[in-house]
Design brief:
deaminase activity, 60s Ribosomal Protein L30, Chain: A, globular, alpha+beta, 132 residues, YjgF/YER057c/UK114, RutC-like_sf, Putative ribonuclease UK114, RidA
Length: 132
């Protein structure tokens, strides 16, 4: 099976030895996207709503770079710094980006340092992605 590296300047560059995303077998696997600005790596926002919005924008940029979007997402994994406090605000913002049928989703508490949320997704790639 062939793996294709995905990279866009419209989402934060990886902070380590990993890809923003990989396509394998017509499926896109993203790295966790955080609420950092794509160009400056500055943290965007202080509330869970603001930070979720930025993380989702970063995910949208990665999806778009390979011809996909949130309608193709089949699974999301969400890491919240404080699930008890932030789940409702996260969920209200998240639902602005996804629609029925909603992707499967796992939400876990994680130590994230200075940010509140990190999200990675698995998405199907449209036909046009296969020829890239």
């Amino acid at each position: 099976m062939n793996r294709q590296h995905v990279s866009t300047e419209h989402a934060p560059r990886p902070a380590g030895h990993y890809s923003q995303a990989i396509i394998a077998g017509g499926v896109l696997y993203t790295a966790g996207q955080t609420p950092h600005h794509p160009n400056t790596w500055e943290l965007v926002g202080t509330t869970i709503e603001e930070q979720t919005e930025q993380a989702m924008r970063n995910l949208a940029a990665v999806l778009d770079s390979c011809g996909s979007d949130f309608s193709h997402v089949v699974k999301a994994t969400v890491h919240l710094q404080n699930p008890a406090r932030d789940f409702t605000g996260f969920n209200e913002t998240y639902q602005k980006f996804v629609s029925h049928p909603y992707p499967a989703r796992t939400t876990v508490g994680s130590h994230l340092g200075d940010f509140l949320v990190e999200i990675d997704v698995v998405a199907l790639c449209p036909e046009k992605t296969q020829s890239r």
